[in-house]
C-alpha cells in the first residue's frame, strides 16, 4: 500500500461561504452551545474528570474540526460511550502501581494518542476501519455501555458510594445500604429524570437537558441545596485553557497505547456512522478517510488543551440540522458561546446539583439503547442478533474495556463464520439459452453429459480449505459415471492462498484416480498468479485453465465430440 500523508484541508469549509448563511449559522451555534452545555458538564464525571474539562472538550475540538474536517454540518464533542471507554482505560492505567500522574493529564495524552492514530490511519487510507465493527455489534455494544452508565449513576442519585461492579452487584449493595440513601438527592434526581422524559415525549422546543440545568440551578440558589447536603458541581476555573504538551511521566506506555487504540476504534466507528446518517439527510457523501483528518485534528487539539478524546456528537449535530446550520461557522459560534460561559457564568454553574447531572446521564444512557434496531436485527438475521447480545454482554459482564475486546472478537468470529462455508452450486445449460445456470435455481437447467461444472462463491483460504475439499469430493462422488471433466467456475473466488493451492492439487489427484480431469475457468489475476507460482497450474496443465466456462465447454466438445453440447455458445450467466 502506498503511504501518502493527508493534505491539510484548512478552511476548506469556508471557501464557498455565502453571507446569507450567517443568520442560520449564528442561530445554530447558539442552539448547539445550549444543548451541549449540560452534557459538557455532566459527561466528564463518567471518567472522574472535572466539569471544566468537558467545556474545554466542547470548544477547542470544535474549532479544530471546523478548520480541518470535511463535513459542513457535523459537530464534534464529548460522547457518552467514548467517555465510558475512557473511564475504563483510566481505571486500568491508575491500577498500575506507582502511577502518580493526574487523571486530566492521562486523559489529554489519550486524546493525543487517538488523534495521532486517526492521522496515521488517514495516511494509510484505513477509513475502512469505520465498518470493522458492524452496526448490529455496535448496537449491542452501546446497549451494554448504556447499562454501565445507568449503574454508574447510583451514587449521583442516592449519595451512596457503591463499590460493587457489574449489573446486579451494585443494585444488591444499594439495597443493603438503603439506610444511607440521601433522600433529597434521590427525589431531585428522579424529578429531573421525569422532567427529561416529559420534555422528550412532548418534543419540547427547548431541549430537556437545558430545562433541567436552568431549573435545578434556580432551585439550588433558592433553597441552598449545598447547605442541605445535596452535592453540587463546585468551583469551575474561570478563563480559557492554555496550550501545552502533556507529559507522559510515570504512566504505563502499553496501557496508554492499547487504551487509546480501543477508544480510537469505537469512537471512530460510531462517529462515522453518525456522519453517514446525517450525510444522507444533508444529501452529501461521507468519506471515512477524510473524516479521519477531521477527527484527528479535533483529538490532537483536545490533547494539547488538556481535555479528553471526542468524536461526532449525535445530539449537537441533530440540533445543527434542525435549526438550519449551513457550515462550520455554527461550530465557531458554539465555541465562542461556551467561551463566554467559562468567562462569565462559572459562579452560576458552581451550584448546579450533581443529582441533576446524574439524571441527564441516565437519560442519555437510555437513549443509547436502540430497541427498534435490536428488533429489526432479530427479524432480519438471528445470528447477527446473537452477536449483538454478545457485544451487549461484554461491557456488563467483563467491564467496558474488555467489552471492546469482546466486540472486536465477536466481529472477527462473525466474519470467520461467514467465510468458513462458501456456497457452491452445480451448473448446467438451458436448451435454447446461452450461458450456464445453477441447477438448484433453474428447473429447466440440465447438466452437460460428461462435463461436470460447479461454482464456488467465496475466497479459498486456510480456514475453509477442509470444508471446500469435502464439498468438491462430495460433488465428484455424485457425478454420473460417464463424467470425464469437472470444471470449477472461479469467477466468484476473489482470493486463493497457499493452503488452498495445496488443497486444489489434492483434489486434482483425487479426481485423477476417478478418471476425471480437473479444470479451472475465469480465475482472477492474483489467484491465477499464485496457483502458477505454487506449481498447481503446471500440474493441472495450462490446457485445463480457461478464460470462461464457454471456452471450457468448447474444449471439452473438441476432445469428446460435439454431442454433449445442449445450447449455443454465449456469455456466462
TrEMBL record:
<dbReference type="InterPro" id="IPR002645">
    <property type="entry name" value="STAS_dom"/>
</dbReference>
<protein>
    <submittedName>
        <fullName>Sulfate transporter</fullName>
    </submittedName>
</protein>
<keyword id="KW-0812">Transmembrane</keyword>
<dbReference type="Pfam" id="PF00916">
    <property type="entry name" value="Sulfate_transp"/>
</dbReference>
<dbReference type="Pfam" id="PF01740">
    <property type="entry name" value="STAS"/>
</dbReference>
<feature type="transmembrane region" description="Helical">
    <location>
        <begin position="386"/>
        <end position="417"/>
    </location>
</feature>
<feature type="transmembrane region" description="Helical">
    <location>
        <begin position="80"/>
        <end position="99"/>
    </location>
</feature>
<keyword id="KW-0472">Membrane</keyword>
<dbReference type="InterPro" id="IPR036513">
    <property type="entry name" value="STAS_dom_sf"/>
</dbReference>
<feature type="transmembrane region" description="Helical">
    <location>
        <begin position="206"/>
        <end position="223"/>
    </location>
</feature>
<feature type="transmembrane region" description="Helical">
    <location>
        <begin position="329"/>
        <end position="348"/>
    </location>
</feature>
<feature type="domain" description="STAS">
    <location>
        <begin position="441"/>
        <end position="556"/>
    </location>
</feature>
<keyword id="KW-1133">Transmembrane helix</keyword>
<dbReference type="InterPro" id="IPR011547">
    <property type="entry name" value="SLC26A/SulP_dom"/>
</dbReference>
<dbReference type="GO" id="GO:0055085">
    <property type="term" value="P:transmembrane transport"/>
</dbReference>
<feature type="transmembrane region" description="Helical">
    <location>
        <begin position="354"/>
        <end position="374"/>
    </location>
</feature>
<dbReference type="InterPro" id="IPR001902">
    <property type="entry name" value="SLC26A/SulP_fam"/>
</dbReference>
<dbReference type="GO" id="GO:0016020">
    <property type="term" value="C:membrane"/>
</dbReference>
<feature type="transmembrane region" description="Helical">
    <location>
        <begin position="105"/>
        <end position="124"/>
    </location>
</feature>
<feature type="transmembrane region" description="Helical">
    <location>
        <begin position="136"/>
        <end position="154"/>
    </location>
</feature>
<feature type="transmembrane region" description="Helical">
    <location>
        <begin position="256"/>
        <end position="275"/>
    </location>
</feature>
